[in-house]
Amino acid sequence: MPTTIDTLASLGLALGLAAACGFRVFVPLLVVSLGARFGYVPLAQGWQWMGSTPATLAFAGATLFEVLGYYIPWVDHLLDTIATPAAVVAGIVTSASVLADLPPLIRWTAVIIGGGGIAALVQGSTVSLRAASGATTAGLGNPVVATAELAGSSATSLAAVFFPLFVLVALAVGIALAFVALRRLARRRPAAGPPPAAAGR
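Below the sequence we write its predicted structure tokens.
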């Protein structure tokens, strides 16, 4: 019977990996595969194939293509067009592969809403940042953004594996701060003025 700490650590691992999918789709999948092979990542029942040699090689090849693609003009734009749905799918897959010993309803709620939602949120932020970089630097700053995204995905994936409770707390704090920032932004919006007076009055 898993303890509360075990359950929280499992959630931290799952959601941390999902967040990392928002930076790079295949880096967290490769980390899960390698972690499973070396005994650092426990896979849920039915997901043991992710630790197999063919899966590791496939994820490694896809990771290499994705990483290099973001340094090639036009290819990075093509990747951006498919990155958001791919990140959501990857977030769901990584979450499902490491979440175990939970009631099915709680597990799949965490997988779909938590894993998929966090991956989409992070991915949306990176797309906005890349668009801003492209507009202000004519694409010259995109390699810097690509490097930062790769570092973010790698660091988040490794932190989720080795420090899942810390990652869970960090995600909770980040979501809370984002919620507060959005509320403040909404309050600062100017109120709509009165409707224009009717003609002839």
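The two ends are 76 Å apart (CA to CA).
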